[in-house]
Design a protein that fits this description.
Length: about 180
């Protein structure tokens, strides 16, 4: 017997990937674009983070690239890397990638989907947990909405596959700021 939550998760992943592929191939009837026009439609962006305190350190880098088909639709890929450590408590390394789909029904409004697949490697000090090491893959599927002004988008996104025990994020709801160049 299939678990209803598992069925919904597979259904959500399938629909998101289907939407990304439809977006990617929906402009197949247009004439071939020359290289100069292709690169003028590519946007780069991403994020960088640094956090430190009393015995704590965390850093992250997440570049991405998008191809803008028209003013309304864009799709692309991203990479993610982060490292965190708390002295005498844990170290964590996360590496992965993502597929991004953006839809702008109006110039200022952005609807986003992002499927992220991350490899998580955690090592804990034996004073805090009995399972000292964890290595696993974690999927995340974000649905978001934001306000865009020039090359900056501010919004909120929700991880529909959120798992409190496995996620590297503390909550399913997350604010975001996107920069594009």
């Amino acid at each position: 017997m299939i678990n209803l939550n598992q069925f919904n998760t597979h259904k959500i992943i399938f629909l998101t990937l289907l939407m990304c592929f439809i977006t990617l191939f929906s402009f197949a009837q247009q004439p071939t674009v020359n290289k100069q026009n292709f690169w003028s439609s590519v946007e780069y962006g991403g994020g960088i983070g640094l956090n430190f305190g009393d015995g704590f350190f965390s850093s992250s880098v997440s570049p991405n690239a998008l191809y803008r088909f028209n003013p309304y639709v864009a799709t692309g890929i991203g990479l993610n890397f982060s490292y965190s450590s708390q002295k005498d408590v844990f170290t964590s390394t996360v590496l992965g990638g993502s597929i991004i789909g953006l839809f702008n029904p109006y110039r200022e409004v952005q609807i986003s989907t992002e499927f992220e697949q991350l490899h998580v490697s955690r090592k804990f000090d034996d004073r805090f947990v009995t399972n000292l090491e964890e290595d696993y893959w974690y999927p995340a599927l974000f649905l978001g909405a934001g306000y865009t002004s020039n090359n900056v988008t501010i919004g909120i996104r929700y991880d529909v596959l959120y798992d409190n025990d496995k996620s590297i994020y503390s909550e399913a709801w997350m604010p975001f700021v996107r920069f594009r160049f």
